[in-house]
Amino acid sequence: MDLVPALEEPLKKVLGPATAKVMAEHLGLHTVGDLLHHYPRRYEERGQLTHLAELPMDEHVTVVAQVADARLHTFASSKAPRGKGQRLEVTITDGSGRLQLVFFGSGVHKPHKELLPGTRAMFAGKVSVFNRRLQLAHPAYELLMADAEEAVETWAGTLIPIYPATAKLESWKIGKALQTALPSAQEAVDPLPDSLREGRGLVSLPEALLKIHRPHTKADIAAARDRLKWDEAFVLQVALARRRHADAQLPAVAREPSPDGLLSAFDDRLPFTLTDGQVKVSREIFDDLATEHPMHRLLQGEVGSGKTMVALRAMLAVVDAGGQAAMLAPTEVLAQQHHRSITEMMGELAEGGMLGGAERATKVTLLTGSMGTAGRRQALLDLVTGEAGIVIGTHALIEDKVQFHDLGLVVVDEQHRFGVEQRDALRGKGKQPPHLLVMTATPIPRTVAMTVFGDLETSVLDQLPAGRSPIATHVVPAADKPHFLARAWERVREEVGNGHQAYVVCPRIGDEDDDPKKAGKKKSAEDEAEKRPPLAVLDIAAQLAEGPLQGLRIEVLHGRMHPDDKDAVMRRFAAGDTDVLVATTVIEVGVNVPNATAMVIMDADRFGVSQLHQLRGRVGRGSAPGLCLLVSEMPEASPARQRLNSVASTLDGFELSRIDLEQRREGDVLGQAQSGARTSLRVLSVIEDEEVIAEAREEATAVVAADPELERLPGLRVALEALLDEEREQYLEKG
User: Fold this and answer.
1) For residue 284, how many other CB atoms are within 10 A of its CB?
2) Phi (first) and psi of residue 528, to 5 degrees
3) Phi, psi of 13 (to 5 degrees)
4) Are the C-beta atoms of 404 and 430 separated by less than 8 Å?
5) In the prediction, which pLDDT does 548 show?
6) Lowest-confidence segment of 10-19, 350-359, 559-568, 575-584 by average pLDDT
7) Percent helix, strand, coil in the chain (nearest 5)?
8) How far is CA 598 from CA 203, 310, 491, 494, in A?
9) 704-726 pLDDT, tens per residue?
10) 50 by DSSP, 3-state: which?
11) When you count CB atoms within 10 A of the terminal residue's CB, does the N or C end of the chain come out lower?
């Protein structure tokens, strides 16, 4: 949030071109304002030392520690054949552990003189392992003199700020640069309205910047962080509130279902009653559809909670009111599946214009990229004439050629798979903005929903329909206990023997050439431990057919098959002609085969928590209980195994999404919404600061309602412009 001209000063002028260049290239900092908003990651206390025992491998760290001993060794090497090579080994300690520092060659002289036992200093470098011990090779260091005036001045007070740093720029150099920039903090214009700041007892922005960089006490840090969290939450929520406000000004056609129309005819034929949750959420949607500005609603529902039923009733209500409804699905498999299940649920009501169709019937049309010319031409005709009240399709719906008679509602399934532009392109096909319903089966913690989907109202379906069965989940440690894996295949045979079916999921297809570009990517330590490539559908299917599942009817399904072949495989599986389907994650969303009761996920550690939960939701969809086996070769103590244990321990998707968020960095979850070094959340944590985000949303809504253009709040306007560069505005607009 660059704030005013004093903070717009380029760093080049203030710090000189060399330092400014490194800051721009490695930390994305260009102005004095950027630097002031580069907050310390943590603080070291003079008297306390960091835990050397817990240093992360391969990461750039800064530690404050005391020299325990220092030894100079000479050795012979190719460069110094007569035993003149020198190596300085320094051991530092913090009371919890010891760490070895090594310096070689001419680099030994200065540290040999300065790093005497008892000396305390800050050391920065990359942690590596040598002879099974942690070490820092050639670390940069800064001595901490207890008495030197300059040092006391630089590390004001007893709290030493440790900044997010890089190999090219150590934490203390950033600290020194901040020393130069800090006087400009007085010029920072406050984005928070005075009434809000005073009402919540928050310090002013200049004071917060001063306290976060040069705290004298822990209370200073707390006061600064509380204030800066509010800035981040509030400015973001104002952006979203303005979005909602602008949407509310758009005109839309109110769509109310007619009392004895298609919707009531459909409800009359349902063989079951809707859950209380479905009734409640439908009511929220119908209320939105009846207004003259576009609905923007996010429908989150557990896997199998009946979201499709809620969406279908909304689409029927719109058709009743004379409009058309479009459902956008992320894959052809899913679009075909939705088309099949919706026409089955509607029966004769989906046969508009056909012999035997009910009198109030409409036509349900499918439009995908791989359709033949004749089928495609007919589908386009059905849309433009209004013959088709409901259309279900993939990205093909977005193409320029596709025109609607009167598009009233857009339903987007599995929002996280759609680019924002695609959603917008479909919305642009209405004569007036259509209503929008976004569905996701990936449960999103409330705070993330408020942060990322803050321009959408949220409905949650958290009950499963009657008749759904519980799913038992177990981790199968294939490396430690190979007999567990053998037992897993026996369980699959037993399920098939009882007349049921099973899925086997693998991370890879198996017909790829090894892509040299991919091979060059840096691997994490866990990947390194796991040298072999992920298990592949084609290999596993062949092994099972010849081995443990010999004699069963096995088929494969993956994303590179021809769409007609995919559909044929799914139809055979749904009809019960296949016992075991070996597939990639193409079955992750929406595939509905109630007779499938078992799922074995190979290399389960290669999938994310939410993805495993999604996959597991494909079994237990009928009256027989479901079984999900997570096969992994990772060692018991590894984070990957802990992740799998958490999936096995609960069926609550919201609980899992929280675990997922804690384990991944928040940036991954917020994705694009927080891209760009200058706009990312620095002190606000989407998990821990739920209260701040919720309160900021309320305050932001009130501020925008009273002053949509923020004319009375110039400081907030400036902060908003800094947050919303063009691209960001676009993202929020569509996201």
Assistant:
1) 16
2) -60, -40
3) -70, -35
4) yes
5) 92
6) 350-359
7) 45, 20, 35
8) 57, 27, 8, 10
9) 999 988 888 888 888 887 776 54
10) coil
11) C
The residues, ordered by sequence, that sit 6+ positions from 25 with a Cβ below 8 Å of its Cβ are: none
The answer to whether residues 461 and 281 touch, using CB atoms and an 8 Å cutoff, is: yes
What are the CA-CA distances from residue 5 to residues 8, 31, 39, 293 (Å)? Answer: 5, 10, 20, 40
pLDDT(735) > 70? no
Give me the pLDDT at residue 46, please.
52
- The answer to whether the beta carbons of residues 185 and 208 sit under 8 Å apart is no
Specify whether the CB–CB gap between 635 and 641 falls below 8 A. yes
Q: Amino acid letter at 186?
A: Q
Residue keyed to tokens 């177990």:
474
Separation between Cα atoms, residue 413 and residue 428, nearest integer Å: 18
The residue assigned the tokens 């719109």 is 318
Distance CA 88, CA 105 (A): 9
CB 118 within 8 A of CB 66: yes
Write the pLDDT tens digit of every residue in 110-136.
888 888 888 888 887 778 887 777 888
Phi/psi for 20 (5° steps) reads: -60, -40
Going by DSSP bridges, is the β-strand pair 457-461/296-301 parallel, antiparallel, or unpaired? parallel
Cβ atoms within 10 Å of 465's Cβ, excluding its own: 17
Partners of 250 in the β-ladder: none
- The DSSP H or E segment spanning 146 is none
- Residue of 272, 273, 299, 274 whose CA lies nearest to 284: 299
Distance of CA 162 to the CA centre of its chain: 27
CA 542 to chain centre: 35
The two tokens of residue 644 are 């799998």
Q: What pLDDT shows up at residue 423?
A: 61
What is the number of other CB atoms lying within 10 angstroms of the CB of residue 308?
A: 21
Could you give the C-alpha distances from 669 to 417, 640, 647, in angstroms and in order? 13, 18, 18
Strand-pair partners of 299? 439, 459
Task: Tell me the one-letter amino acid at 62.
Answer: T
**DSSP 3-state assignment of 408?**
strand
| Six token digits for residue 606 | 């290669």
Half-sphere exposure of residue 43: CA atoms within 13 angstroms, side-chain side: 24
Residue 667 has pLDDT above 70, yes or no: no
Non-local CB neighbours of 228 within 8 Å, separated by 6+ positions: 39, 208, 212, 682, 683
CA 642 to chain centre: 19
489: left (phi over 0), alpha (psi -120 to 50) or beta: alpha
Mean pLDDT of 258-282: 89
Find out whether 589 and 336 touch, Cβ atoms under 8 Å: no
Report the Cα–Cα distance between both ends of the chain, in Å, rounded: 21
- Please tell me which residue, 159 or 507, carries the higher pLDDT value: 507
In whole angstroms, give the CA distance from residue 588 to residue 333. Answer: 11
Q: What is the DSSP string of 168-204?
A: TB-HHHHHHHHHHHGGGGGGPPP-S-HHHHHHTTPPP
How many Å apart are CA 40 and CA 165, to the nearest integer?
10
Which distant-in-sequence residues (6+ apart) come within 8 Å of 198 by Cβ?
none
Q: Tell me whether strands 60-75 and 120-130 are parallel, antiparallel or unpaired.
A: antiparallel
Rg of the chain over Cα atoms, rounded to whole angstroms, equals 30
DSSP 169: B
The predicted structure's pLDDT at residue 515 = 46
Q: How far is CA 203 from the centre of its chain?
A: 32
What's the rounded Cα separation, in Å, for the pair 630 and 485? 10
In order of 70, 137, 393, 417, the CA distances from 95 in angstroms are 17, 21, 63, 49
3-state secondary structure at position 28 = coil
Here the tokens at position 361 are 């019937």
The counts of H helices and E strands in the chain are 29, 21
Question: Using CA atoms, how far apart are residues 81 and 78, in angstroms rounded to an integer?
Answer: 5
Q: Which residues fall within 8 angstroms of residue 480, CB to CB, at 6 or more apart?
A: 635, 636
